[in-house]
Amino acid sequence: MNDLRPESGAQIRWFVYALLLVTSAGGMIGRIWTVESSSGKTPLLSANDRSRWATVRALVDHGTFALDDVIFRDRGMSYR
Predict the structure, then answer these.
(1) pLDDT tens for residues 13-70?
(2) How far apart, in whole angstroms, are the C-alpha atoms of residue 50 and residue 33?
(3) Dihedral angle, C-alpha 17, 23, 25, 29, nearest 10 °
(4) What gap in Å lies between CA 32 and CA 80, rounded to an integer?
């Protein structure tokens, strides 16, 4: 007859899978929480991030896609 009990190796394998998932999720969450820009104020890491948020701000504040009135930084500061 067929034995319907799971083998002990399967239980260990699923435990290792769960451990790997929890460890990787914790690592990703930890990295997300520690993101800072070079200025340390906001997690805007690239010009692409800044342009997206400038568009959102222009739409919310002014109801338009025009970014001329939305200023995020001084012209003298350099960002990497």
Answers:
(1) 999 999 999 999 999 999 888 877 667 666 677 778 878 888 888 898 888 888 777 7
(2) 19
(3) 180
(4) 19
Q: Helix or strand or coil: residue 77?
A: coil
**Closest Cα to residue 80, out of 35, 31, 43, 45?**
45
Residue 21 class from Cβ within 10 Å (0-12 exposed, 13-18 middle, 19+ buried)?
Answer: exposed
- Residues in the chain, how many? 80
Q: What is the pTM of this model?
A: 0.45
Task: Please name which of 23, 48, 50, 25 lies closest in space to residue 39, comparing C-alpha atoms.
Answer: 50
